[in-house]
Amino acid sequence: MVAFGLVSLSADMVYEGMRSVAGPFLGTLGASALTVGMVTGAGEAMALVLRLVTGPLADKSQRHWRLTVVGYAMTAVCVPLLAVAPVLGAAGVAVASTLILLERAGKAVRSPSKSALLARMASATGRGRGFAVHKALDQVGAFAGPLLVAAVAAMTGVLWPGLALLAIPGLVSLLLLVQLRRRVPSIVEPDPEDAEDAEDAEDAEDAEPTAADRPTGRLWSAVLGADLPRDFHLFSLAVALTTAGLMTFGVISFRFVDAGLIPLAAAPVVYAMAMGVEALAALATGDLFDRYGSRVLLVVPIIVAAVPPLVFAPSLGPVLAGVVLWGLTTGIQDSTVKAFVADLVPSRRRATAYGIFAAVQGVGAIAGGVLAGALVTERPGLLTACVVVLQLASFVLLLRLTRRSTGPRT
Questions:
Q1: pTM to 2 decimals?
Q2: What is the pLDDT of residues 104-125, one digit of tens each?
Q3: Among candidates 319, 272, 278, which has minimal Cα distance to 148?
Q4: Rounded to 5 degrees, what are φ and ψ at 407?
């Protein structure tokens, strides 16, 4: 877990360094608030929806490591290339938007495979703690990357040199990943607790096929997760609703820079602060999840509903408080939520489940990105009301799921 965390630490320096300035960077190229919201929202959606394909592909091919390496390589290449966008004139916004989307596609390629590998590695220590430790380590990179970009921006007055410099940690992440791959095998056997399920699956394969088991049926069943538990699908919907209400940092930073509350060069510093909070939140809630089960997830929609009134405030103090809450929520979403998914599905279907889960979450991301981009500058009050309604629906679903919880996870 620690070794994989070091890989993520280096990679997070790259893409979190980029994400910390994505909104203001697109703004310097001439993009509007709506464009920023659509690009950053679509990027998050792409990072999630494409996992609907890459998750089943990983389970079927058992090429978890290969997909992980390819995904990290896409990030290591696309982010530094953003440095060329300012010299492209009118084409700069289109090129920068494309590179941001490609980087997010790389996230989709690697994430289901990486999460399946991590879930297997963490089975002996507790998945809540395992995912939390990994998340805390990669958040060190998420903290360092924005600070590096901020330092270079402060010295040069522009953002592109800092983006170019992120090529160095990108290369380091790939070298570390290649070394780790040589020492850790791929997933070839189910978890012990899933051994009986695996035997049942083998017996089912030996039985006479039915109409639902024919190739086309199996394909759609795998892609849509028809064989996965109902609670998994309800949980996916609940998290999608929280994601729709949790605006991207690109939208938040565009707004506070445009309002003159924070200078452009300081935006990455604010993002780094959020990443520090995210790391602490992952560690704390991961341990609470292993002790008390899924009930800890009930706080997520409550926190998300509190973010818009703060980040839309006219003074700096509430805005920073809102960013702290934003980091707290993303820490829970990226660690403890994934641990619960691993508990809901058998190990032989985890990469598929992570892909489907992320795809549903991605629908929420793109809807939330467009909603925030359209309303953030002219109708922030209406945007706040929409977020509250979404979080109320999410809370009701999570409450229903937690009542079925079996208690502490091991």
A1: 0.63
A2: 999 889 888 887 777 766 655 5
A3: 272
A4: 105, -155
Is 134:120 a contact under the CB 8 Å cutoff? no
- Can you give the residue range of the structural domain that contains 314? 2-185+221-402
Q: For 309-361, what is each residue's pLDDT tens digit?
A: 898 888 899 999 999 999 888 888 777 787 788 788 887 777 788 888 878 88
Q: Which of 246, 256, 207, 217 shows the shortest CA–CA distance to 366? A: 246
Query: Can you give the pLDDT at residue 128?
Result: 61
Q: What is the CATH number of the domain that holds 97?
A: 1.20.1250.20
The SS3 assignment for 236 reads: helix
Domain count, the chain: 1
Residue identified by tokens 């924005």 is 146
DSSP 209: P
| Structure token digits, residue 111 | 């994430």
Q: Within 13 Å, how many C-alpha atoms sit on residue 23's CB side?
A: 26
- Decide if 407 is inside a domain: no
pLDDT value at 74 more than 90: yes
* DSSP run (H or E) holding 395: helix 380-402
275: tokens are 């990443």
291 burial class (0-12, 13-18, 19+ CB within 10 angstroms)? Answer: middle
